[in-house]
Design goal:
- With about 130 residues, this protein is an all-alpha fold.
- It has helices spanning about 15-25, 35-50, 55-70, 75-90, 95-110, 115-130.
- The protein has 6 helices and no strands.
- Helix 2 (about 35-50) runs antiparallel to helix 5.
Length: about 130
């Protein structure tokens, strides 16, 4: 890993959503499984809407993955922490609940919902002020 942070040229809300998905999928157990990748793509498709092409979804997810891979642990935690006020300003509480439900779907995608994943989902809920 180089020391260069490779954030997308134009960070979008979708990138931030994917960073939270990657937190649950990769950070919690340090393994990124195919099932998790498929769920992330499907959820990102939903968030981008009917006008988004498969190429749009792939590009956004890939940009977020490259960004994630370029960050060290402290930078990643700071990115998530800095994303919370951005997303809470953009999304009403009902939409934040949908995002958290989606994060749980990513956590469960591999057929397991571990104690650590539950703990991290609860941290996210608390950060967003959603129970």
């Amino acid at each position: 890993m180089s020391n260069e942070v490779k954030a997308p040229e134009e960070v979008k809300y979708g990138h931030l959503n994917v960073m939270f998905y990657l937190f649950i999928a990769c950070y919690t157990d340090a393994k990124f499984k195919e099932q998790e990748a498929l769920v992330i793509k499907a959820l990102t498709t939903k968030w981008l809407g009917d006008d988004a092409t498969s190429a749009d979804v792939d590009k956004l997810v890939m940009e977020a993955c490259v960004w994630y891979d370029s960050l060290n642990e402290e930078q990643f935690k700071n990115t998530l922490a800095n994303s919370v006020p951005i997303l809470t300003a953009q999304y009403p509480v009902e939409v934040l609940r949908v995002l958290i439900d989606d994060i749980e779907k990513v956590a469960k995608a591999d057929g397991r919902y571990t104690k650590d994943e539950k703990h991290n989902v609860n941290i996210i809920k608390k950060a967003f002020g959603v129970s």
